[in-house]
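Researcher: Go.
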Amino acid sequence: MNNYKLLPALISILQTRNLTESARQLNVTQSAMSKTLQQIRTAFHDKIVIREANQFVLTHKGEELKLQLPTLMQTLDNLYLPNTMDANLCRRQFTLASSDYVAQAILPSICWDLANHAPNASIEYQLWHKDNLTELADMPLDLVSTITDMVPENLHGKSIGEDKLVVVCRDSHPLYQRKRDSNTLSLVDYVNAKHILISGGGDKDSPVDHALTVLGKKRQVFASVPFFQSAIELLLKTDTLLTTPLHIAADFAQTHDLQIMTLPVDIKPQQYYLLWHAKHHHDPEHTWFRECCYPFLKNHLARTKEFGMKLLHADK
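Model: Structure:
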């Protein structure tokens, strides 16, 4: 009979490719993990991982198992789940990943709803980078709110909406004062200005640099910061520009002396999605959690974008 007790260790080894880290994750000694690896190799008639220099690489069999096992294990775990969700009895820790902006602007409302309807459940929030989307199957995440042009086949998702990029600056910025007369921000002014970049998430304004490269131009980066709030504080104290989605710009403009200008580069609207791996799709607790999160994300985007359009229209 096959030894299914080896599977958790196998999954860890496939993900970490590091016996020391896998031993730490499973709370066993490295010697015990080495013995387990030998058992795994015997059971699967394959080396699974091979040492090359200072690291392990996966064999072809190892690569196949890395793709297949997470979904299979989740399917087995789902057998123990109740057929229906009783929010009052749910003690699950849900994991949601997105930007620091979502953590600041939307997460408190999600937590309020969770506390009122599932008082024994909890949330772990993680910062997200869109480049991790293809690795979602290997990550311990329930939901991801992100920008993407294409939803991978192994993921399920719901469209939150779309938004365009705009330029934000403080009210006293010389470019904005000049723009009030000419009613436009030229590409030359945009490129020559000093810019703030937000490195956390890395998915808000990267299309701009690609578009500028095609035109043979490049922005002058004054500062790169990890969080939206720090970027806003810099905008308020310096003559800099921030390129960001309209709904985010409009949200901050409600509480700060900021102005919004049209981006002088043609960029297609960004598509926002709430995504989850296929292994979670039929999980009743997961279904309940994503249906809890989705309206807050969608309504916030729609509301703040509508306010932002009014600001742009009033400025003309």
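Model: The radius of gyration is 24 Å.
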